[in-house]
Every structure is written in structure tokens, then in C-alpha cells.
Amino acid sequence: MPKKTVHIISHSHWDREWYMAYEEHHMRLINLVDDLLELFKTDPDFDSFHLDGQTIILDDYLQVRPEREAEVRAAIAAGKLRIGPFYILQDDFLISPESNVRNMLIGRKESERFGAPVELGYFPDTFGNMGQTPQLMKQARLDVAAFGRGVKPIGFDNQVLEQSEEAYTSQFSEMWWEGPDGTKILGILFANWYSNGNEIPAEKTAAIEFWKQKLADVEKFASTSHLLMMNGVDHQPVQKDLSAAIRLANELFPDYEFVHSNWPKYLEEVAADLPENLSTVNGELTSQETDGWYTLANTASSRVYLKQFNTKVERKLENIAEPLSSLAYRLTGEYPHDKLTYAWKTLLQNHPHDSICGCSLDEVHREMMTRFEKSESVADYLIEDALITLSKGISFEGEHPFVVFNTAGHKKTGEVEVEVVLTRKLFREGLPEQLYDELKAQPKHIYKVVDSEGIEVPAEISAEEVLFDYDLPKDRFRIPYMKRFVKVKLFLNEMDALSWKTFDLVESSEEVTTDESMISGYTIENELIKVFVSTDGSLSVTDKQLNRTFNDLLIFEDTGDIGNEYIFFQPTGTHPILSTDSLPKISVKTDRPEIAQIQLTQTMMIPKSADELLDEEQKKVKEFHHRQAKRSRELVPLELNTIITVRKNSRKIDFETTFDNEMKDHRVRVLFPSELTEDTHEADSIYEVVKRPNSMPKTWENPTNPQHQGAFVNLHNDDYGITIGNFGLNEYEIVNRSTIALTLLRAVGELGDWGYFPTPEAQTLGSHTFNYSLEFHGRPEQRYETYKNAYAAQIPFSSVLLDSSVLTENDKHTELSHEGKFIEVNADKFAITALKRRESDNGLILRGYNLSNQNEKIEVKAKTTSLNLLEEEIGEKPENLAPYEIRTLLIKEGLNNDGEDSTRQMKSPKEESN
């Protein structure tokens, strides 16, 4: 019988920040790479070291050791340092689909800048694996993924589960992994964790004991004669005597061949030796068949402020800055690749699993807030720069014209606020206070807003104000001035996806008033729905198209939480506190024909914290589900203020809830009973609307079943359904197969995991605002409209003034019409995730995915070429989208489907009349 080969791969799983602040990890990284470079010189038998699949390690090292770049490059060229293919090791579920792709794009570019990447999808410690991993990997030219969580037989940490009567998801550590679209790749599970070959003894007695146990463990699950031993663990220093330890192992165990290996070698040899009876695992891998305690899904609600900020920055970068910059490119031929990459890299630095999951020390998450602010500032600059460029390329004669852009990939209904400058006086014209008084003294006027056809558009216009402002031209010194302005709130209904329209603020002879109202008492009603606020603060909603009334909606629930940043745990013997236990205050906030808002104020009496026992149990590092702490008997008021918004032509109800959290050790959720009792539900995930079970198997011991979501979660049957949308609220649970419970906030006081690490800022004290929505739909095919509405709601309108007074002669060119579309896509169930420029040639890139499990037709009003996720051309693809297919298209601009020029410029009605 041939020998089995034991592949020992040296690595260090580099948590960039976690139970130490970033710079403490950083300094240890410097020591690690210093040691590696020295070891490569002194030990010719040391094969190589795997740099954890993330190229940011190179940036972090060279930031401190720039003089050693040549040595680093030489080590990579010699195959001693194995790098890439990603930029960071992200959390799959808590970042957007595009963030996952940009991590691959930037990681590939960074890898090729230094050498060549390891062609392996590397997910050693991701908290669950996304279902579309196979398709994402294949479209990035990766055929294998290695991962540590999500499939039995792995136990907690490095524990090997004992064989039992239960069937494993996969009987081997090697398996086929099939995505929802049918794409298959090879999956390598770290069945004994990614530390099963850590600190191999170089002393005989210890080595015999070590290898007897380790070989038995790995052979339980290996399907081939190639056994994988990962020599390293979290931020582990390199084992300097590894070569000696391997020589000793070969002497002690002659039936095995121990080699210092590397991923390319191991993958090549294991792939050639795979048996025919490998299992196939399907879709997302989130430890569905375990006891449910260590899925770590509750990190979706830890430090929820991080998730909200992340969502805001992602939307600005991928859904506003990039589309606007792509359109502005038509005027300038310039696209801010480097600035966008800088913003993306800064944002991605917040996306490792211990960072975006909110399961690190307070110092770590404070630094994350700074990174969010930096990335957002770059996005804001690029948005403003693109808007100014576009304002110079759109000609429209009017009194005070402005343009509104919908950069969402779907039709959008909502409001946009525009500050319209009526007149300005430059500081060079006089003293600031004098200019202020002159503008203040000007007579006031009545205004209205009209569209490009001169038709009045619903708007709310503020009183005229005077304030300081300034311009920062690119070719001269700043220009300070005083401005006289009004604030215009425009009410838009189903503005086309990826489009722009010009409006004009004009003087009016009289102020228009109307008696139209959607509010009567505690009821808001339009032609589609009727919303009634009950005396206990819950809602009853009648959907007129369904002819159904749904009761007891919008009930807030507070429970104790004596878990940690990873895991929610309700104190035993305690019960939820509900907002319906007290009477609310109800008032009208907005009453217009286009929009109605009722404000709901509720006070819940909440325990101020857990009792004193929790502090002692935490210090003892007592396992969370063995804790006996209860909630404090001292109650304090939690006042929730919720604005309920209904628009004239919409079935969607929007909510904005604000409260000042002064309590510790608790969780706040909002409940939406559906009157459905279904076996499955759907949620927005990474390039997938994933179907998940509402009940868990017998192995599941956790009384809760938290789940991840992006923009929405949906429950439906064959007749009707309910979609709950959100902004940056990534945790939900389906309770009793019927109620959607959306987590707003979870407050805990410790990191958890393997030691005692207090995190007082994870109690999230202070003021918080949460945005979410409710929309009913009819038969199942109608649910996709609610999904698109949830996506569009996350992306605000953009606007810019068309002010000819600030243009130079060079600026006065007309290249865009007063209204138009970035690109026209006809596909009912195609969710657009990106409109950007390709770095290699500035080609226009459109990316999205099929929301459904059916073939869907897609029509783009332009010639296109299909690309993979690395944005490399792969030839033409079928007209139809396969189920859940991710598609990236290169748009041949200026050509319609017949290859004819379709860029004829349109003129405004006033231009036509001239």
C-alpha cells in the first residue's frame, strides 16, 4: 500500500484586529514577516508560508518596513511567500455583493502587483459561507474553496465530533459544493480546524503523542491519501524548528510521508486522488445541522451602528459615486479609478469578520468609525465632483433649474431635498455682514416647481433664508459668498431606474393650497392601503388589493441578553416586555396629498441591566448558556418615537424609530406577524434571494434561530406575502413560522469567545435611529416588486443646480439632454448591483443578478459583451439569465441593438422653440 502524504502547510490566520487593537496586531505582524524573511535565508528546507489569502498583509508590513520591499518581492517570486487572492478576509454576509467582488478585484490586482496569487478561494474563519460562493469563485477563475465553518463534522474550535447515528452533511473533508445556479467547485473543509498541525513537536516523546492523535483525527474525514495539516493558527508566529519536526515525524512514522507543502501542491495532488463518492453540499453553509449555538449569526446585531454606517458608505460608493462618475465620463473622458480604489480599500479594511461583525475590543471599533468617515468623505467628494461636471454638461434655460438623479437600479418613489440658491453676493462685493443684510432685505416671493414641460410638480418649499457658503474651483482660489436660498422637498413617483430629470423653481402668482388628506384620526389611507394605529400602539393594515386586514403589526419587544458580541442568550426564566403593555401618544407629523406621517411615542419600562451576578460570571469566563444571571429589578423608561410614513401611490409603509438607549444587557426587536404559517421564507443575501427553513432539525438546541439579511426578508404563500425592508439592520428571525422579528439593537458588555474581554461600548448607549419598511403583495410572482422597492429605498436621490452664473466659457457645452437614462435595461427580475468603469479601458460595466430561480429574459438597449467577475471578456452569453445567475456586461456605448448611433442630443422645450 502506498504511503499517505501528510501535507504540512505553514500559515498564520491573521486577524488584523480583534482582542487587541489594530496596531498591537500590526506590530506582531512586523515580527512575523521579519522572522519569515530571516528563516527563508537560513533554512533551505522550509518550503513556504501562506499569508492567509489576504494581500493587505503586504501593505501593512511595508508601511513599517518599506526598505524590505525587494526582499518581500524576491520571496514571493521564489514561492516562499504565498499571497492572495483576496485583499482582506471578509465576512460574507454583512457586506454587500459588490463589496465581496471588489475584495476579489482589488486582491487580484494587488497580488499581480507583487507576483501571482494562490488560486484558492480562502475562507478559513468566515462566520458561515454564502450560497453563491461557487459561482463567485468560478467567475474569478478559482475552482476550489477552503473553509472552516458551516458543514458538519467540525466541532467548536479544534474539537472533532464523535461519530454517531446522525448523518453528516459530508462524510469527508473534501466535497463538491454546488451553488443555487448549479455551479460546482471543490470544497475543502478544515474538519479539524485550521490549526490541526500547529506547533508540531521536534522532541520524540511529544511528537509520538502528537502525531498519533492528529493523524487519527485527520484520517477520520480525509477522502484521499493526502492529509492536510495546517501549521499555524490565529496570529501565530512561524514555527522556526518545523524542518526538524518534519524530519523527526518521517523517522517515527515510516508509513507516512511528511512534507512541508503548499496550497498549489496540495490541491493538485488531492484533486488527482478524489474518490467518486464525494458528497455534494448545496447553497449557503451556516452550520444548519449543529446545535445552533455557534453559528455566530448574532454578530449581525452586535454594535448595529457599524452595520448602519457600512450600509451608508456602500450605497454612496457603489450606487451613487460610481454611476454618477460613469455618466460624467461621457463629458470629460476621465474616471477617478485611483480615488475610488482608495475609498474601497479604506472601506474594505472594516470588512474582516472580527471587524464588521462587531466582535472585537472597543478600541478596534472606534478606529473603524474613523475609516468609515474617511471612505464616506471620499465618496462625498466624488459625488459632488461628478454632479458639478454633469451640471456643466446639461443645458436648460429656466429661472432656477436643477437636476435630480435616480442612481438606483430600480424605479424609485420618495422625496428629494434640494437647496436652490436664488441669488448670491461674493465677498469681494462688500463686507460679509453688509451682503447678508442686503440679501435679507430683498422682497420675498412665492415659488413653485415645474418639470421640463412646464407642468407643476408637487413640492414643499421653505421660507427664504440667507447664509454663508463657498465654492472651491479646481483652477483657482476659494470663492466665499452669501447666498439667499430656499429648501425644496420634491415628491417623486416611480422615477425611472438610472435616470435623470430637470426641474425648475419659478416664481408663482399665488400659493397653492389643498384640502386633500390621507389622515383621518389615527388612520392613514390611500387608494391601496389603510393603516390604523390601535390604542395599544400596534398597527392594523388593510391591503385593498388583497382585501385582507393584518393586525398586531409593529410591536416592540425587549428581552434581556447575558450573552456576548457573538451570541444572544436570554436569561432563563425571564419573559419579553412588549410596547403594547402601555398606552402610546399619537400625533400627526405630516399631512399632505403626497405623503402622510403619524408619530407614535411609546414608553417601555425596561430593567436597567442584568443583575450583579453577570459581572462575576463574565470574570469567571463561564460559558454563556450556563449562566444564571437574571435582569435587574430596577426599571427605567425607554421612550420609542416612531414615524409611520405612507405615500399617495404606494403600498409600502416606511418606519423610522428613534430612542435613547440607557439600558444594558438587552435586545430590542420589532415584530410583524404575517398570519402565515410557512415552512420556508426568503431573504436578501449575496447575489441571491435565498430560501431558508422556518424550522430547524432535532440537533438544534438554541431556542432562537437568528439569520442574516441584506435589504429585506419575505414570508409568502400561494396567495399573498409580506416583505420587511431595512437599512443596515442585518439580523432577523422567523418566530413560530409566522412572525418576522427584526432586531434593532443588541447591547452586551463583553467580547466573549475564549477569554474575558470587557467591551462597555458594545452596550451601545446613546441615541439610535432605525429605518425599515413593510409591504404586502399578492401572488408569489408579485413579491419581486417589493424586493426592488426595498433595494431602491436604500439609495437616496441625488441633485445638483444648473447655475449658469458660475460657469466659465470653457464650461458652457451641451452634451447631455435635460433628461435621460444612464443605460436602459429591461428585465423584470434583474437586480443591478453596479454601474462603473473598467479600470483597464474605462469601458462601462453593468453588473447584477437574477433574483429568481427561473430563467429570465434580459434586454439591454446597447451592444454588450459578457465578462467574468474579474471583468475579463468571456464571449457572448445566452439572452436569458439562468436562475440566480450573476452577469457582468461591458456596454458598447453610443450604439443601440442595431448598431446605430443612439446618442442624438435632445433639447428642452425652450431650446426647441428657439
Automatic annotation (TrEMBL):
Biological process annotations from GO: mannose metabolic process; oligosaccharide catabolic process
Q: Which domain of life is it from?
A: Bacteria
Q: Where is the composition biased (Basic and acidic residues)?
A: 901-914
GO MF, one term, reads:
metal ion binding
Cite the residue spans of the region called Disordered.
893-914
Sequence ranges assigned to domain Glycoside hydrolase family 38 central in this UniProt record: 299-372
Q: Name one Pfam family in it.
A: Glyco_hydro_38N
Q: What is this protein called?
A: Alpha-mannosidase
Q: Which organism is it from?
A: Lactococcus protaetiae
> What does the record give as the organism's lineage?
Bacteria, Bacillati, Bacillota, Bacilli, Lactobacillales
